[in-house]
Amino acid sequence: MNKTRSSRRDFLKVSALAGLGASAARISTPSAAAQDVATEPVTLPSGIVIKGDVSVTRPRPAGQQPVHDLTTQPLDKVRVGVIGLHRGMAHVDACLKIEFCEVVAVCDVFDDRAKNAANECEKAGAKAPAIYSGTEHIWEKMVERDDLDVVYIATPWSWHVPMALGAMEHGKHAFVEVAAAVTVDDCWKLVDTSERTRRHCVLLENCCYGENEMFVLNMAREGVFGDLTHAECAYLHDLRGVLFSLGTEGDWRRDYHWQYNGNLYPTHGLGPVAQYLGLGRGDQLHYLVSMSSPEKSLTKYRDEVKPNGGRHAQEKYLCGDMNTSIIKTVLGRTIMIQHDVVSPRPYSRINALYGTGGTFFDYPERLAINDPKPYGLKSKGPDEWLEGEDMKQMRDKFTHPLWRKLRERAEGAGHGGMDFVINWNNLHRLHKGQTPDSVVYDAAAWSSIIELSSKSVATGSVPVPMPDFGRGIWQSLSPLGIAGKEPSES
Ligand SMILES: NC(=O)c1ccc[n+]([C@@H]2O[C@H](COP(=O)([O-])OP(=O)(O)OC[C@H]3O[C@@H](n4cnc5c(N)ncnc54)[C@H](O)[C@@H]3O)[C@@H](O)[C@H]2O)c1
Known about the structure:
Elements: H1 3-21, H2 32-38, E1 42-43, E2 49-50, E3 78-83, H3 88-96, E4 101-108, H4 111-123, E5 130-133, H5 139-142, E6 150-153, H6 157-169, E7 173-176, H7 184-197, E8 201-203, H8 211-221, E9 228-236, H9 255-259, H10 267-277, E10 285-292, H11 297-305, H12 307-310, E11 323-329, E12 334-340, E13 352-355, E14 358-361, E15 366-369, H13 388-398, H14 401-410, H15 418-432, H16 440-447, H17 449-458, E16 464-465
Parallel strand pairs: 3-4, 3-6, 4-5, 6-7, 7-8, 9-12
Antiparallel strand pairs: 1-2, 9-13, 10-11, 10-16, 11-12, 13-14, 14-15
Helix pairs in contact: 3-15, 6-7, 7-16, 8-10, 10-16, 14-15
The chain binds nicotinamide-adenine-dinucleotide.
């Protein structure tokens, strides 16, 4: 069958569904000419080929069932193994503080990192975990163990998918660091393996569990923002030093800057926004357009600082300093998402949400409410951000229940405590045999932005239709509830 035609038919089918789901919203779709460009394979200047079918929703292989509501046997102790012991140490530390969790095995290429992790466990009064170290494939032995429930994967991006597949094939749930995968093909492998093996594949998107993000989620669910219309999010983090830092991300992360020109790290921004808007649950990513600024800052930094004795002088970076994508959802809502890890500037994920009832912006946090009266606020209305006392009142009322419950225990944990909250929540779900907040479809959809944005940039910003990894399940689901108010949490 002609791939271009089938892709376009698939896209139009989604557009038709959009009409069903959104009586109020008029959905514009890309022109036929734009769709034709978007469904052709594209060769990037790095030689990497983005396939023509990245926009296609692949049919579910026979015998597979969706996993959006997959529940499992409750576990008295959730037994975990952790691969990659740099970022992975945040997960080891969190697991050691969770009474229904046990660290059974740790794995890293480097012996000293693995031994150090085992020592940390012993220092915390836990049993010494088994150590797997010394080679790049030693993790394959670890996932064969029959006393593991979860495998954490906190390794360079190129290892995420083989390790997650290996874990699930051996009957373990895979908890994967961000982004889960770089290519759409790999996203589908995660989806199909999770469905076939009936194991969860959970993206460790800690930003969904930040205090501000959960405050906004709670307000969104409680109707403070009215009808949600638009969101803005980003990963704006000056990583120039880190990108050349050997022994850590400088060993591998810079590679993506010569391979792709798009959004290389979409999930920290998109994860929370996806949960506010109910993407994959009542609404769905539809298509995106993307463009990049020129590449300047990484080259300038490399040439001026000459990191690592000037050994990177010949590298040619492709990724523009600032990548901006705009996503249209099936219900017609819009999301602006940016990526910039090389400009000199303070950190921000933007984290903004608009609705008919109000607007939130982060960095620094600001909230405007259309009608402040029902909340007893002093603010006169939406043309001013809430002042200190008003903001405090909203905080008191809408702090997320999970944060009220875990605040003290999260104290001192990584990234303002969110690293503890995400781990507690995911492990608690498995402890109770419940479905985690985010499943493989979220991991795939949020990660797919890397390749889809790169394709749009490479084709002069044509709209690129986004595949539906849940294969239609979004239409029958409601947006994520507020953990802590669900019966299971009481
Ligand atoms: N969610 C967050 O806030 C956050 C923060 C930092 C990093 N990350 C993510 O975590 C992952 C790891 O990042 P990092 O900063 O720790 O990178 P890193 O390069 O500093 O550490 C990776 C570790 O994995 C080990 N490793 C590599 N290949 C391996 C293999 N085949 N088998 C066993 N161990 C292997 C390395 O030896 C190293 O110790 C990345 O996906 C990154 O995007 C997420």
